[in-house]
Amino acid sequence: MSGLRSFVARRLLLGAAQTVAVVLLVFALTEALPGDAAVALAGDQPDPARIAAIRETMHLDKPAYERLADWATGLLHGDLGTSLVSGRPVGRYIADGFGPTLLLATLTLALLVPLGFGLGVLAARHEGRLADRLISSVTLAVYAVPEFALGVLLVTVLALQLAWLPPTAVGYGTDLLGHPAALVLPVLVLLARPVCSLSRLVRAGMIDALASPYVAQARRYGISGPRVRYTHALPNALAPAVQQLARTVDWLLCGVIVVEALYVIPGLGTVLLNAVAERDVPVVQGLAVVFGVLTVVINLGADLVAHRLAPRAGVAA
Amino acid sequence: MYDERHPGLHRRGFLAATSLGALALTGCGTGDSDSDAKSDGAPKSGGRLRAAFAGGGASETLDPHLANLFADVARAKALYDKLADYGADLSAQPRLATKWESNKSLDRWQVTLREATFHDGRPVTAEDVLYSYRRIADPDKAFRAKASLEPIDLEASRATGQRSIEFVLKRPTAEFPNVLAAFGAYIVPAKATDFDKKPIGSGPFRFVSFAPGRSAVFRRYDDYWEGAPHLDELEFVVANEESARVNALLGGQVEYAHELNPTTARAHEGKGQIEIVRLRNSAMQAFCMKTDRPPFDDPRVRQAFFLIADRKELVDGALSGAGVVGNDLFGKGYEYYDDSLPQREQDLDKARALLKQAGAENLKVTLDTSAVAAGFTEAASIFRDQAAKAGVTIDVKMGSKDSYWADILNNGTLCCYRSGAMPIEAHISQRLLTDSTTNATKWQHKDFDALYEQAQSTRDESARAAVYNRMQRRLYTEGGFLIWGFADWILGTARTVRGVETKAPANTLDWARFDKVWLA
Fold this sequence. Notes:
- The complex is a heterodimer of chains A (317) and B (520).
- Chain A has 317 residues and is mainly alpha-helical.
- Chain A has a domain at 102-265.
- Chain A has helices at residues 2-32, 37-42, 48-57, 64-76, 90-125, 130-143, 147-161, 181-210, 213-220, 225-253, 257-263, 268-277, 281-309.
- Chain B is an alpha+beta fold and 520 residues long.
- Chain B has three domains: 11-79 and 203-255 and 496-519, Periplasmic binding protein-like II (D-Maltodextrin-Binding Protein, domain 2, 3-Layer(aba) Sandwich); 81-187, Dipeptide-binding Protein, Domain 1 (Dipeptide-binding Protein, domain 1, Alpha-Beta Complex); 281-488, Roll (Dipeptide-binding Protein, domain 3).
- Helices cover 30% and strands 22% of the residues of chain B.
- In chain B, the strands form five sheets. In chain B, strands 1, 10, 11, 12, 13, 14, 15, 16, 17, 18 and 19 form an eleven-stranded mixed sheet that branches. A four-stranded antiparallel sheet of chain B has the order 5-6-8-7, with helices on one face.
- Chain B is globular and about 70 Å long.
- The two termini of chain B are 38 Å apart.
- Chains A and B meet through helix 2, helix 3, helix 5, helix 7 and helix 11 of A and strand 12, helix 6 and helix 12 of B.
C-alpha cells in the first residue's frame, strides 16, 4: 500500500506542477493575442484616449509579470482575482458556470456508464452475430457524426418538426433542473459519441478477456457462465474503459462549448468563450486553474480505479 | 424649440406620419394573413414577453452608463430614460426633457424636465440629471458617453429649479439635443452607484431579477410618464448563437429574437410561422480609405475606387440582398442627408482613366477585413474581384475580430467599415474632423472643420442644412468613405406580437422598445 501512497503523492505533485505550467502557458498565450481587455471593451469606438483610460482603470498599464505576480499572490490566499470587465470576483464566474456544467456532466455520466458497458458486454456476448453487428455498425455510424451536426439535426427533428422537446434551454439558466425536458437534447448529443467509444472499448476488452487462458481455466473448473463473465472477465475489460471514461468526464467538466452554445446552457464553456473574447485574463486564468486541477484529479482517480480492477497491470505513472 | 402641445405642427411630426403610411403599405404588400396581423387595432394588456438577444455573458451589468452591446441598451432603455432620444430620421425627440431652448449664441441651453417619477416614487429632478451626466463625465472613468457629453461644461451648468437646468457649453452647439440623446446618456437617481442589486430608473419597466449572461426580468411600471406598458412582464434572455435565437423563437420559447441573418429571414419570411421585421437603414457598410497616405492621398485614386464598386452586387452578395445601395454618404434617410446627389454607378473605364492620370496603374492594395461584422469578409472578396476588372490588385488580409476596430484606426490603407445609426452631425464630429477620436479615413481638413463649426453656430435650421449639404458634397466628391450600402437590421417575432415599430433603425428610440408592444 505504501507504494500506492507514494505513487499518489508523486502524481499529485506532478499534477500541481502541470497545473502551474498550464496557467503560465495560458497567461502567455492570452497576452500574445492581439489586443487586450481595454481594446476589446472599446469595440467599434476605439478612441485612443478612452482605451488608455480603460487600461488604467483595469491596471493593464502595469507590466505583465507584475499583473501575473499580483494574481498569483491572491491565488495563494485562495482568491482567484476579479474580472477585468465587470469587477466581480472570478470565483463567482466559476461557481455560476459550474452548476449547469456539473448537472449536464452528471446526467450524461449516469446514462453513459450503464449504456456504454451494457452495450459493450451485450455485443461481446454475441460476438459476430446479429446483435453484435447491429451494435457495432450503429455505434460506428453515430460516432462518425460531429456533435454540432447531430445537435442541429436533433433540434430540427425532435424540437421543431415534432415539437416533442424544447429546442433550447434559453432563459432556464438559473433553474435548469426545473425544466428537465430542455436537458434531453443536450444530454443526447453529449452522450452520442462517448457511448460509442466506450461500448466499443468494452466489447473489445471483453472479447479479449473471454478468449484468455484464465477464463478457459475458470470454465474448466465449472464456474457458471455469468460468474465468469462478470466477476472475472469484465474487470479486466474495464481497465482501458475506465481511462476512456476519465477522459470523457474531463471533457464534460472542462467546457463543452458547442453543446452549450447550441442549446444556450450557460456553463463553463460559455464563460471561457466570453472571457477569451473579452480578453478577461483573470477569468481565463481562473478557469485554467480549475480545469487543470480537475484534469489531474480525474485522471489520478481513473488510474487508481484501473489499478484496483486489474492490479497485475500495474499503474502507469 | 419643441412644444409638445402641438406635436402635429412640428416638422418631425409630419415625417412620423408619412412613415406610418409606409408601414401600412408594407403590411398590405406581404399578403392577407400579414395585414390581418398588423391591423388588429386595440392593444391588449397583460402577458409576458421574452426577448432573446446576443449578450455579454457573465460580465453583463445593468449599469446603463456601461451599456455597450445591443442587449445592454435594450435593458437600459426598459429601465431608464434619456432626456431625448433619436427618431426614425435620427433627429432628437424629447423624452424626459419636454423643452429645450438656447440663447442667441447657442452656448447656453435651458432644458425643462417633464413630470416623471423614478420607480421608488421620487420625482426626476434637475439634480438627478446633473448627477448622471457628471458620473458619465468622471475623468477617472471611461464611460462610452463621455465623449458625447464633452461639449457640456458640467462645472458651470446648474439646476435653475426642480425641473429646469441650464447647460453651459464650451462652444456653440446647434445640435445640442443630439447630446441629450447620446448613446448611453441615461438618467439615474442622484447618488446611485450600485446597479446590479436593485436598480431604480424612470423607464417603462421596473427591476425584478437579473442573472448576468442568462436573464433579466422586468415588470410594468404603472406610473410611467408616457403611460404604463401593455405587457405585464418583460424578460430578456441571452443566446449568443443566431441559430439558437431562431430555434427558441420557432419553438415558442421566446416571442422576440433580435439580430437574425438575412438567410434566416428569407427562409421564414411569409411562411406564417414567425414574423420577420426589417429595420431599414440601420447599419452603414463601407470601405474606408486612409486619405493621408499613398495611394489614397491622391483624390483621383479615391474617385477611381468610388467608380470600381458595383454596389448592387455588394448588397446582394455580402448582405444577401438585405439592404439598399449607398451613395458614399453616411445616413441615408436621416435628417440633413443630401439625397440630391446622383447615385454613383460602376464605371470601370473612367476608373481606369483616373488611375492612369494618378500614375497608379497596376495598383496593389491590401484590404483589411475580419469576421467582426456580418458580411465583412464577403464584401472584401467581392470588391477584390470588382477591382481586378479595373486592373487593381487587392490583397485581402484577415484580422482578429476582437481588436479589429483598434487595429484599423491608424494602420493600413484600406479596410472594411461599418457603423450603426447616429445623426449625420455625430458621424462628422466623431470621424471626420481633425481632432475626431475615431478618424479612420484620416480626413483632416481645416476648411472642413470650419464648416462644421459654422453649422454648429447656425441657429436657422435651413441655413444649417445648407452647410451640411456643402460638407456632404465635398465628401461625395473626394471623401475617404466608400459607402456602398445600408444593411437592414432583422428581427423575428412570434405571430402574437403586435406593435413592433418597423421604421426604427437600430439604436433609435423605437428600436427594441417594449412598452408599446403587446401580445394578441
